[in-house]
């Protein structure tokens, strides 16, 4: 049934339609979302609403989503006590929408640092790899104090490959700040993180960030976000979200895009007002779910989580449970809470606060620290299944052991299984041989970050090409499909559309973005078609396209996909590359190597300009016999291609491997396939 819903300045009412109509209209009050009023009292936009809406309520005062959710809590929750002095929030968003920069400004304005203290940008991105790539990989905790209220803040990754981090963190909080770019609006990862937050029943405050951008369009962003809430089956209370407009880099926020305050005060006040304090059972049996694990040399394993019930004390005897049947006893060594940017030791922690626990050396993520006598385990953390797998094996190249410290299969196995202790979204299985392991993750970037960390720790190994994880249901082969969103200038749109079409992509939406002549294309495409797509799209668009992907669902096998039309140039002998040999070799394609590099037989040294592989001698030296006929000729070489680890993994095919060492990344042909060919 269609109906008309009106948002007014002081009330929210459901109006019975005068007659059935083919479309329903939603009147969004500009006052509610902080936009300037127009001469017309109501602005309408066409939206389809679910038939479940209750049309009997009227004249209900506008409140934050959380206040309604709190009133509709179950009787069991009503027996709990709400702590008014604490707020636990997570900041969630699509990648590059400004989460970490916004946290920087929140920390500075909460006087976490001294006025004369030097603070680097994106201080929450403390990992070297995060700083190099400019993305958040690991979720991190901090806290600030605003008007006698402690706000625990958790910064989460924005990339869909690290969605497992977001799913874990949402167990610790009562509300989220959903950060949305003022130009791009809701993006694929915005949808994913919001869906998870709504499933947990969390309160949501929408922050329209980067409002100072010249092409900002806040009204479009708010309406798009509202439509996304409805599309994800949000309740009426959740749809009644508070909108805050902010500029993270300037440290300003306000209830209207045209009237920002001098600081982030309106944002802090919205957090206090719209996100509830934790509901706790202070006198109940102790319960704390280990949501995150850190490690320090002197303290060992540190379990981080929110205390759900009871009081946790230093030196306390506790029970650690995976399920009701498997429990063991332990003792709390040290206890910490987060104050400002540091962990501060305390003697006891009351329910509702986020704390860090030392002394339990074998604790795992998802286990419950419970009362020794009457404690019961909390539900374990569930994350979505991986969609991509890659094979890891020991290094078998002639250069093995030159740079790495850990080269044996035992070293490799121990490191991979140790990764599972913290990375819940990843899986490791033994491969076909004793020195091969299959690692499954949420995407190629998810596994690439693990590879990069391992090579920096001194490991040497080889990895195979990424493969999708298929399913068979009712004798039908299903493969994962993803939603690919591409922002590309109109002049390059034709070549990008052609490229996505070849990879079995199906376009379902196309719209203009901002005033820069950019078009946003949305495709449903098999995950197989995305392998190696990022470089191809950058080439087709001359480096101007932006690609974002998000797992959608499993669907029927889409058919064969050709991801690479060109073959490889392969060295056919060991030696050192020479300018003389490379000069003649560069006519065959683009080279990866420059003069003076050691290569070995089977190493990939370039991209063939045609299909099929070609073996080359890149170590040939100039004969020194007849001086007059072999006089010195100046050799002009093209600049060698410099492929990163991500580029190499995207490039390789089924019969190729990437050799990863602490100082080098090489590609080679897989010798096992060469034997099969013979």
Automatic annotation (TrEMBL):
Residues 84-279 form the Tr-type G domain. InterPro entries: BipA, BipA_C, BipA_GTP-bd_dom, BipA_II, BipA_III, BipA_V, EFG_III/V, EFG_V-like. One of its GO terms (biological process) is ribosome biogenesis. One of its GO terms (molecular function) is GTPase activity. It comes from the Eukaryota. One of its GO terms (cellular component) is cytosol. Pfam families: BipA_C (PF21018), EFG_C (PF00679), GTP_EFTU (PF00009), GTP_EFTU_D2 (PF03144). This is Tr-type G domain-containing protein. It comes from Acer negundo (Box elder).
């Amino acid at each position: 049934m269609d109906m008309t819903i009106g948002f007014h300045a002081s009330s929210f009412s459901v109006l019975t339609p005068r007659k059935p109509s083919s479309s329903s209209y939603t009147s969004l009050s500009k006052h509610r979302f902080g936009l300037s009023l127009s001469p017309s009292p109501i602005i309408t936009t066409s939206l389809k609403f679910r038939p479940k809406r209750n049309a009997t309520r009227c004249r209900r005062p506008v409140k934050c989503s959380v206040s309604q959710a709190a009133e509709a809590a179950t009787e069991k929750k009503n027996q709990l006590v709400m702590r008014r002095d604490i707020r636990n929030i997570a900041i969630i968003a699509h990648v590059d929408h400004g989460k970490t920069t916004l946290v920087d400004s929140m920390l500075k304005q909460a006087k976490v640092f001294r006025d004369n203290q030097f603070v680097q940008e994106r201080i929450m991105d403390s990992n070297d790899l995060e700083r190099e790539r400019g993305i958040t990989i690991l979720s991190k905790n901090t806290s600030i104090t605003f008007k006698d209220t402690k706000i625990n803040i958790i910064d989460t990754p924005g990339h869909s490959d690290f969605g497992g981090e977001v799913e874990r963190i949402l167990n610790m909080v009562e509300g989220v700040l959903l950060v949305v770019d003022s130009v791009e609006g809701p993006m694929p990862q915005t949808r994913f993180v919001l869906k998870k937050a709504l499933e947990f029943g969390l309160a949501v405050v929408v922050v329209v960030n980067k409002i100072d951008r010249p092409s900002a369009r806040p009204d479009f962003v708010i309406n798009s976000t509202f439509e996304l809430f409805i599309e994800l089956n949000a309740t009426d209370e959740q749809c009644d979200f508070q909108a805050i407009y902010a500029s993270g880099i300037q440290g300003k926020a306000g209830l209207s895009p045209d009237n920002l305050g001098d600081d982030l005060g309106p944002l802090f006040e919205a957090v206090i007002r719209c996100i509830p304090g934790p509901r706790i059972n202070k006198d109940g049996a102790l319960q704390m779910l280990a949501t995150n694990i850190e490690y320090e040399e002197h303290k060992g394993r540190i379990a981080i989580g929110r205390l759900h019930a009871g009081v946790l004390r230093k030196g306390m005897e506790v029970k650690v449970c995976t399920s009701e049947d498997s429990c063991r006893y332990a003792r709390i060594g040290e206890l910490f809470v987060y104050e400002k940017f540091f962990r501060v030791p305390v003697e006891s922690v009351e329910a509702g606060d986020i704390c860090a626990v030392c002394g339990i050396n074998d604790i795992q993520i998802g286990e419950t620290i419970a009362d020794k006598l009457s404690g019961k385990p909390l539900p374990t953390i569930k994350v979505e299944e991986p969609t991509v797998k890659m094979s890891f094996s020991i290094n078998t190249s002639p250069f093995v052991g030159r740079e790495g410290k850990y080269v044996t299969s035992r070293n490799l196995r121990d490191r991979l299984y140790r990764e599972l202790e913290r990375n819940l979204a990843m899986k490791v299985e033994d491969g076909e041989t004793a020195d091969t392991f299959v690692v499954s993750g949420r995407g190629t970037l998810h596994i690439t970050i693990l590879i990069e960390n391992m090579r920096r720790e001194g490991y040497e190994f080889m990895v195979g090409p990424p493969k999708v994880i298929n399913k068979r249901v009712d004798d039908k082969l299903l493969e994962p499909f993803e939603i690919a969103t591409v922002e590309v200038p109109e002049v390059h749109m034709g070549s990008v559309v052609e490229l996505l079409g070849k990879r079995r992509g199906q376009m379902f939406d196309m719209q203009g973005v901002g005033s820069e002549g950019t078009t946003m294309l949305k495709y449903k495409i098999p995950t197989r078609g995305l392998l190696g797509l990022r470089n191809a799209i950058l080439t087709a668009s001359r480096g101007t396209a932006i690609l974002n992907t998000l797992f959608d669902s499993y669907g029927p096998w889409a058919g064969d996909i050709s991801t690479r039309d060109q073959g490889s140039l392969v060295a056919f002998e060991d030696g050192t590359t020479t300018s003389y040999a490379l000069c003649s070799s560069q006519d065959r394609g683009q080279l990866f190597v420059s003069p003076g590099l050691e290569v070995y037989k089977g190493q990939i040294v370039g991209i063939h300009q045609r299909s099929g592989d070609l073996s080359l001698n890149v170590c040939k030296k100039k004969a020194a016999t007849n001086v007059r006929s072999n006089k010195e000729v100046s050799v002009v070489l093209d600049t060698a291609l410099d492929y990163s680890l991500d580029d190499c993994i995207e490039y390789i095919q089924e019969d190729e491997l990437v050799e990863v060492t602490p100082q080098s990344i090489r590609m080679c042909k897989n010798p096992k396939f060469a034997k099969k060919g013979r």
